[in-house]
Design a protein that fits this description.
CATH superfamily: HAD superfamily/HAD-like
Oligomer: single chain
Shape: globular
CATH topology: Rossmann fold
Order of helices and strands: HHHHEEHHEHEHEHEHEHH
Structural class: alpha/beta
Distance between the termini: 29 Å
Number of strands: 7
CATH class: Alpha Beta
Strand content: 5-15%
Number of helices: 12
Helix content: 40-55%
Largest sheet: 5 strands, parallel
Radius of gyration: 22 Å
Strand order of the largest sheet: 5-4-1-6-7
């Protein structure tokens, strides 16, 4: 259960009155109290990813199921996560998104909460350069298993091309296989046609490989039907849902994604209060009778 920020502030103040001033070198580097207690929609999501066993159990379950389905797909030459035709004789491959699918960036998100700031390309670039992302539970074991079976591992990420070197170094330090003499690391803007929509990169892989599984944390990691209204996304999901838990595997990411931005029309120029109001409006609440 979360404790009230006001109670925490009162407790901290009382401790200072009793103990007296703390030496500067003994003071932890924390954000101002006002920043820590300011409303931030990331709080529960970042806390869940960093501190809950539920997050770990969820991720482990997704990758454990993926391993079972991988063995089935390798035994069935007709199986394809992209509904390919004529791919039976192609070597098998798996496509994985990186952020919140393979790489855990919850420390960055938590930093936004405690500093009272919002995402920016500047702080994100600094986070990538720091190479401190951790492994999503289960991902390393799955990828190593797939690699041991002769499956080519492709990382299809919307990290930008100029962030590739730092990202590779982060992954290599965690022990992830990087593909040998084949470029298996496909970043945004690496080629002119490789934009945020990952369709062109999935098609690029599918020319030479039978894609037997895909992993992501966002609907657009699997399909170009992720854009549109909430209702349009629901319709697309209903048409594609047979893939999920068969050859498409979704990791839980409550911190950000197209599910959130859809509620405020993908208008990132809106203030946080305006976005929050539209998100509340998108809810389908139950309220008790008077």
């Amino acid at each position: 259960m979360l404790r009230s920020p006001l109670l925490l502030t009162f407790w901290a103040s009382a401790c200072l009155l009793v103990a007296g001033p703390v030496a500067a070198q003994d003071t932890p580097a924390t954000a101002p109290a006002a920043a820590q207690t300011a409303p931030n929609d990331l709080l529960n999501a970042a806390l869940w990813m960093q501190r809950s066993v539920e997050f770990k159990a969820n991720a482990l379950a997704v990758y454990a199921l993926g391993r079972i389905r991988l063995d089935e797909a390798l035994a069935d030459k007709s199986a394809s996560a992209l509904d390919q035709t004529g791919a039976a004789d192609m070597p098998p491959a798996v496509i994985l998104d990186l952020d919140e699918t393979v790489m855990d960036n919850s420390a960055y998100e938590s930093g936004l909460v405690t500093s009272g700031t919002d995402y920016s390309s500047k702080t994100w670039a600094a986070w990538v350069a720091a190479k401190q992302a951790k492994a999503i539970p289960g991902s390393l074991d799955y990828i190593r298993y797939a690699d041991s079976k002769g499956v080519k591992i492709f990382y299809v990420t919307n990290r930008k091309a100029d962030e590739e070197a730092a990202t590779r170094a982060n992954l290599e330090a965690l022990g992830y296989p990087m593909g040998g003499n084949v470029d298996t690391f496909l970043t945004r803007d690496e080629k002119p046609e490789w934009k945020s929509d990952k369709t062109t990169r999935r098609d690029f892989i599918a020319k030479d490989y039978r894609v037997v599984a895909m992993f992501g944390d966002n609907f657009n990691d699997f399909t170009d039907k992720a854009a549109g209204t909430t209702e349009e996304r629901e319709t697309a999901f209903e048409a594609l849902q047979a893939h999920f838990a068969t050859d498409w595997f979704m990791l839980a990411n409550p911190t950000y994604g197209s599910w959130e931005s859809t509620t405020f029309g993908d208008d990132f120029k809106l203030s946080n209060d305006e976005k929050r109001a539209l998100k509340v409006k998108a809810l389908q609440p139950w309220t008790p009778s008077p």
